[in-house]
Amino acid sequence: MFIMSKKEEGVVLLKVSTITGQIEREINLGKDREPIYAFDDITGQVYHQTENTTLISYLVT
What are the respective helix, strand and coil percentages of the chain, to the nearest 5? Predict the structure, then answer.
């Protein structure tokens, strides 16, 4: 499960275990309050658009 949260350094996307409730991964999305991102269930990747032409991919499996 993924949850968006606010931290001191900005907005983060947290991967939380549905079994233990523990945070497994944290992805810093910067200061954007409405980040554009998508999760691919098949490949286990998160895609984050940081600017109009920049796309970053994170492997979160």
Answer: 0, 60, 40
d(CA 61, CA 59): 6
**Residue boundaries of the structural domains of the chain:** 2-59
pLDDT in tens, 7-57: 888 899 999 999 999 999 998 888 877 888 898 989 989 998 987 788 989
First to last CA, the chain: 11
What global pTM score does this model have?
0.73
Look-up of token digits 């991102």: 37
Residues in the chain, how many? 61
